[in-house]
Amino acid sequence: MRRLHFSHLQHLTELLLCTIVLFALTGCRSTDVTRKPSSSFKIEGHVVDVKSQKIYDGRLTVADGMIRKITPLRSPLPADAPYLMPGFVDGHVHIESSMVTPAAYAEMVVRHGTIAAICDAHEIANVLGVPGVDYMIQSGRQADFHFLFGAPSCVPCTPFETAGASLGAAAVDSMVRRGDIGFLSEMMNFVGVVNDDPEVMAKLRSTLAQDKPIDGHAPGLTGDALRKYVNAGISTDHECSTLAEAEEKVALGMQIIIREGSAARNFEVLSPLVKTHPGQTMFCTDDMHPDELAEGHINTLARRALAQGAPLWNVLQTACVNPRNHYRLQSGLLQTGDPADFIVVSNLQDFPVKATYIHGRKVFDAQDLSCSPLKSPIAAVGHQPNHFQARPISPHQLRVSPMGKKMKVMVAYNGQLLTGKELVMPKTATTDGEENVVSDVENDVLKIVVYNRYTPATPQIAFIKGFGLKEAAMASSCAHDSHNIIAIGTTDELIAQAVNRIIDMNGGQIVVTPDRTTEIALPITGLLSPLSMSEIAPQYTLLTKAAQEAGCKFDAPFMTLSFMALPVIPELKLSDKGLFDVGKFQFTRLME
């Protein structure tokens, strides 16, 4: 039986008191966000009933934020009448990757018909701990939108990097008991699960005791180890990179969340599951940057799945129903007695959104772009929390002495979080009478640096192939998962310049060339901007363009860069503590 927490009842009571009357179909004027909406309205269209898998002409009667009645019409509507259907749900997202606050995120995605998101605030938790998660929840309450936040399970994700906070078993136990925490976020430490790590197992037990879902993160895990991982109570995975991997996990009962983000893109490989296993699939973006969010969201994946021949009802089950049911969201599915959460679309092929309703309030109107889910201006968020103690560095600190004949090089790939590994001959040059290993621009072997931003430390240095910069450096304070400063460049001077500017801004992203600098400031924890999505998206487009004009070959240069510090995804990564071999789960020497 589903549990209804006191906080849910309290929240519902507040909604009923605050929404005495609801917006009429044509009466949304969000420039006055405190204006009371009309008490009820009716709307007609082709009703898309996902439970009965039927489409019929009907009239919705909405009052007090609820669908009070759905009345089938005796006379058919014109063929070009709009369709009324449940809204889309993002099955797994780190809002921090959108570089805006949850309220600003909601303001953008409702335009694409998304009414809910399953949110892992893991990124901000690695910077601030529980207060970071609380910040995200509070920001989300500024908008009419269904946010469900989880308790981050791996902060830090491993002991092999330095984070700004730590959430042990006691902290997680306290969080999963809260009514505003709906699940345990992705358990990345699959090694800890398989080996019965006491701290990891305590977190799993706490969550299961509260009858809440546990998200997984187990790239490449297979066989007996995978079975043990699933038997520990972990029910989802969004890290599958092959269909065979996904099918093995499906056979064990897992929900496969098909990801299409800015860096990791698995839709083409995994989309056949929508046809074959519609009851065990969801869509997610995981990590998506603002320029792409401005173009589309879950609606894009639904459209692509249909174009590939997946049945409409399979697609809607994946995009609307499964995440809502799995995570026990308080959102509606366009049924009598449900919350009035639905979207109005022109057709069921492309899903062009005409309007989005949440809690019976019109939060998006294609004819009135001022219509918004915001209850108060984004600027009213207040303080801008952060954790930044890094000191400026000099080019001299980035020098590497040749200590062997061969050098281990990370290999980055477009659209993937995985890296490869190569052994190469290091390129050396003499500086101030000393021989040093330097970037080999001709062969695309560039220096990469990760620098602890929380406490005074020494920059860690390795080399990477794939980014293609010619005479430039790029740096960011978004470096999954602990979010230290990460930088890549062709010379020590440019790298130091980029890193020091990130420190000056207390967080951001930057591209530096000899003749210009392009940057974005992220003063909220070094991850988020106080701007709206429509303001930050064009800035990010310019930043991406600057990296690509400097030679970067990737579609999403900064998203790819951010994952080069994540020591839980194979094969070779660089943390603020050194070069890490994920397969062996231990540090390794740069030279041999």
Helix content: 25-40%
Low-confidence runs: 1-38
| Cα end-to-end separation | 58 Å
Output the strand order for the largest sheet.
17-16-21-20-23-22-24-25
**Large-scale geometry:** globular
- Fraction in beta strands: 25-35%
Number of strands: 28
Compute the gyration radius: what is it? 24 Å
**Strand count, sense and closure of the main sheet?**
8 strands, mixed
Average pLDDT for all residues:
91
* Structural class determined from secondary elements: alpha/beta
Q: How many distinct helices?
A: 17
Question: Could you walk me through the main structural features you see in this protein, from its secondary elements to its overall organization?
Answer:
With about 600 residues, the chain is α/β, with parallel strands linked by helices. Helix content is about 25%, strand content about 25%. The chain has 17 helices and 28 strands. The strands form 6 sheets. It has an 8-stranded mixed sheet with strand order 17-16-21-20-23-22-24-25, sandwiched between helices. Helix 3 (about 120-130) packs across helix 4 (about 130-140), helix 5 packs parallel to helix 7 (about 200-210) and helix 13 (about 300-305) runs antiparallel to helix 14 (about 310-325). The model is unreliable at about 1-40 (pLDDT under 50).
